[in-house]
Amino acid sequence: GYNQSGSVGLPGSRTLVVTPTSISGKRIEYQITITKGRQQVFQTRVLLKNRSSITIGGPRFKNGYLLFNISGRSD
Predict the structure, then answer these.
(1) DSSP track, 19-33
(2) 40 beta partners
(3) What proportion of the chain, given as a percentage, has pLDDT over 70?
């Protein structure tokens, strides 16, 4: 639901938190945060059309970067 966070564990003792922060017409804004322990290591906001998705690059991990496909919808 609106303004309710969802989280998932990531490699390297990180946690991804996604929170829908606003809905305007057919667009949803999400706050995306990655924490490691109590430290915030990545933060961005994305604006998605309803029922669409976006792939974003996150922090470095081993010899590359973590990539996330974020999709959203409001019914």
Answers:
(1) EEEEEETTEEEEEEE
(2) 35
(3) 96
